[in-house]
Structure formats: structure tokens, C-alpha cells
Design goal:
99 residues; mainly alpha
Length: 99
């Protein structure tokens, strides 16, 4: 995969995270959906980044620090919306490597 292709994929994940963040802030995002979006995004990013590359290691290191603990509720709590913001910020930092 070329750097341009990786950048396009990362940008598409950012769009999805931002859409989910809006729903989260509006308190209409189910917790089960939120957890799935976060986990799938992390998995997809790890799949497209060249393994053992600096961007992969930066991403992996940052994700380890990201709390994936959710408050018990049907819908995502506003406090939990920070997970989307944090993951989005991590992706933006990784994306710099491919522009």
C-alpha cells in the first residue's frame, strides 16, 4: 500500500470517528456501537500500517494508553466521548507520516 493510499484510509477513519463523536455528544450513540467503532478502527489502522514501522509503533504505544473502559449505560456518556476525540488525535498524529 502506498503512502497516499494509507493516508486516504486514515482520513476515512477520521471522518467516521468525527461522525460518531457528533452522535456521542448528542447522546444518541449506543454504547455497544461506540465500543465496536473504536475497536474496529484500532484493528483496521493496525492492519494498514506497515508492521514495525515508526507510525505503527507510535499508534500502538498511544492506543495502549487509551482507556477502553465504558461506564455502564445503554447510551454513551458524554465523558466517554473523549475516547473518540483521543483516537482521532492519535490518528491525526500518525497521518502526518503519510503526507
Amino acid at each position: 500500500m502506498t503512502n497516499e493510499e494509507i493516508a486516504k484510509q486514515l482520513e476515512s477513519y477520521l471522518v467516521k470517528l468525527n461522525e460518531s463523536l457528533k452522535d456521542c455528544n448528542d447522546e444518541i450513540l449506543l454504547q455497544s456501537e461506540a465500543a465496536k467503532i473504536i475497536q474496529e478502527t484500532i484493528s483496521k489502522v493496525k492492519e494498514i500500517l506497515p508492521e514495525n514501522s515508526r507510525p505503527y509503533k507510535e499508534f500502538d504505544s498511544a492506543i495502549i494508553k487509551l482507556s477502553l473502559w465504558w461506564k455502564k449505560s445503554k447510551y454513551v456518556d458524554k465523558e466517554d466521548c473523549k475516547k473518540f476525540e483521543q483516537l482521532s488525535n492519535i490518528l491525526k498524529k500518525v497521518l502526518i507520516n503519510f503526507r
